[in-house]
Specification:
four-stranded antiparallel beta sheet; alpha+beta; five-stranded antiparallel beta sheet; Alpha-Beta Plaits; Uridine Diphospho-n-acetylenolpyruvylglucosamine Reductase, domain 3; 3 domains; globular
Length: 367
């Protein structure tokens, strides 16, 4: 089923006799989802773009590449730099605006500007009963009752099928500087990244690769802005981090961060891929526990990507910790998403009962 309008989508959901599997670009097949495919790719196109107001509105099926090209023509960008999962998951197609919003996809800049959800101004969606719902607006400050915009972000299509998303965008940067330290242990790297992120020098990304491109540990920081500002802040960070060894600085377009964002180092490696969210200070110990085949730290250590043997349950190795682990790629006899604590699970169940009482939207994806 491929609805061409929001009204058609509402009719299809109303008339559905069983589960529906929501599909946008088909680039993020995460979770075990059953039912007939409901393709939203035809709900596409940019309906409003006001560069002066830093606002763009488009259909949920609009490819992210189209959004980015339109913004680039006005020297603007999606500040939260959404991850492209195609290499990691070996998928084809084009990531879409709706899929990005539904999964709250964010990249390395998450630590400095916020997540996708923080830039969503408004949404239109169809719930599990076929009701067309609009929430939010086209400015950051609006009074519209319940904040369903944030609720839809990260709901993975279980509460409704997005048809339109309004986003705040930001100006692009003139210069990107990347600082690199070599040979640090995981604990040293997290300490160095924490020191940089706690400074006033505005790092916009912080990652540690225990097995860098040359096989040796490399710790990376990114700073962005006008060239004179980038050079000044890079010098200050070099002074701040001199206790951790020599700090090399390169200026350019920051293209090297795409590999960090998309975890391309794991793309051709066999095994399960886990995404672990944790306190940065806990990250090195958690990595020691799981004994993964390979890891990558992002968000200053707050995000751990782990490559493990097929079928292995990393949650059992992690034990109780302040965070959650999601199985992004592979199979294991465990839920894809971290099981919720009883109080939160009760809230989630209640929300789904309100928005999708028949339980037909992406049924099983959270199991």
């Amino acid at each position: 089923m491929t609805p061409k309008t929001e009204a058609e989508l509402a009719q299809m959901i109303t008339g559905a006799n069983g589960p529906l599997r929501i599909r946008g670009g088909g680039t993020r097949p995460i979770g075990q989802c059953t039912g007939d495919a409901l393709d939203t790719s035809a709900l596409s196109g940019i309906s409003l773009y006001e560069p002066g107001a830093l606002t763009i509105v488009a259909g949920a099926g609009t490819p992210i590449s189209e959004i980015e090209q339109t913004l680039a023509a006005e020297n603007q960008r999606l500040a939260f730099e959404p991850m492209d999962h195609r290499a990691l998951l070996s998928t084809q197609g084009a990531p879409t605006l709706g899929g990005m919003a539904a999964a709250n996809i964010s990249g390395p800049r998450r630590i400095s500007v916020g997540a996708c959800r923080d830039f969503m101004l408004g949404v239109r969606f169809v719930d599990g009963q076929g009701n067309i719902i609009k929430n939010g607006g086209r400015v950051m400050k609006n009074v519209t009752g319940y904040d369903l915009v944030k609720l839809m972000a990260g709901s993975y299509g279980t509460l409704g099928v997005l048809t339109e998303v309004a986003l705040k965008v930001l100006p692009d940067v003139e210069t990107t500087g990347t600082l690199r330290l070599h040979g640090l242990t995981d604990r040293q790297a997290v300490q160095a990244l924490s020191a940089a992120l706690g400074s006033p020098f505005e790092a916009t990304a912080a990652a540690h690769l225990p097995n860098g491109p040359d096989g040796e540990p490399v710790t990376m920081l990114r700073i962005e802005g006008f060239e004179t500002s980038v050079k000044y802040r890079a010098g200050k960070l070099q002074e701040l981090l001199k206790g951790y060894g020599d700090v090399a600085v390169t200026l350019g377009d920051g293209s090297e961060w795409a590999a960090v964002r998309d975890v391309t180092a794991f793309a051709d490696q066999p095994g399960n891929v886990w995404r672990i969210s944790a306190k940065p200070s806990d990250a090195p110990e958690l990595v020691r526990r799981i004994e993964a085949n390979a890891v990558q730290y992002d968000w200053g250590g707050g995000l751990i990507w782990a490559l493990a043997d097929e079928g292995r349950d990393l949650r059992a190795a992690l034990g109780d910790f302040d965070g959650h682990a999601t199985l992004i790629r592979g199979t294991a006899d465990v839920p894809t998403f971290q099981p919720e604590i009883p109080a939160l699970a009760a809230i989630t169940t209640g929300l789904r009962a309100k928005f999708d009482p028949r339980g037909i939207l992406n049924s099983g994806i959270m199991s």
